């Protein structure tokens, strides 16, 4: 399993802390609580449509982003269907709470495996102390140190030297996740 840097459940950054078993339990607990809200017919199982609603809910988005410092993406029924079928162990066409939680972990884990830039996004999010999407001065120095460039300690990097990391990572992430950067004609945009 990939190691991800994370933020505490409260959303307060704790740079350097690894995603712990407690964090995973917290993530699953939040997903389980959201289950109660999105099992609208109260039959103890979720349909594919209900899974789509819960995956795109504010509760799941906030839990995922606060624990991983990665942006959450929207999921369609089409995105979820292969995972849904695999998680539906009893072939009922719906997911029990346990099957849903297994589905949730599988999708989040697969997303990180398919797009290693998500870990880069999480790391840059922790280095970006003021969370403005821009690495400046000392933040850039911190990045260089993490990348193994020890002489960065000796470099004076003024605050006007800036690197806007969010747009770069989002664009690369879209390409890696398959959506690309396409115009209305379906062709890749330039620039």
UniProtKB/TrEMBL annotation:
**Keywords for this entry?**
Calcium
Q: Name one GO molecular function term.
A: calcium ion binding
UniProt xrefs under InterPro entries: EF-hand-dom_pair, EF_Hand_1_Ca_BS, EF_hand_dom
- Pfam families in the record: EF-hand_7
Q: Which SUPFAM superfamilies match?
A: EF-hand
Q: Where is the EF-hand domain?
A: 26-61, 75-110, 115-150
Which top-rank group of organisms is this from? Eukaryota
Name of this protein:
Calmodulin-like protein camb
Q: What is the lineage of its organism?
A: Eukaryota, Viridiplantae, Chlorophyta, core chlorophytes, Chlorophyceae
């Amino acid at each position: 399993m990939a190691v991800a840097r994370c933020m505490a459940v409260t959303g307060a950054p704790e740079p350097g802390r690894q995603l712990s078993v407690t964090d995973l339990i917290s993530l699953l607990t939040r997903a389980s609580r959201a289950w109660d809200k999105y099992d609208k017919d109260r039959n103890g199982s979720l349909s594919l449509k209900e899974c789509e609603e819960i995956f795109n809910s504010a509760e799941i988005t906030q839990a995922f982003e606060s624990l991983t410092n990665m942006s959450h993406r929207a999921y369609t029924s089409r995105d979820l269907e292969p995972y849904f079928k695999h998680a539906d162990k009893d072939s009922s066409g719906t997911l029990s709470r346990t099957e849903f939680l297994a589905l949730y972990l599988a999708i989040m884990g697969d997303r990180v495996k398919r797009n290693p830039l998500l870990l880069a996004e999480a790391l840059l999010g922790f280095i970006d102390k003021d969370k403005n999407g821009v690495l400046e001065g000392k933040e850039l120095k911190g990045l260089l140190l993490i990348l193994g460039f020890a002489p960065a300690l000796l470099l004076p990097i003024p605050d006007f030297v800036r690197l806007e990391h969010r747009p770069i990572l989002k664009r690369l992430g879209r390409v890696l996740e398959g959506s690309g950067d396409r115009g209305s004609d379906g062709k890749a945009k330039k620039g």
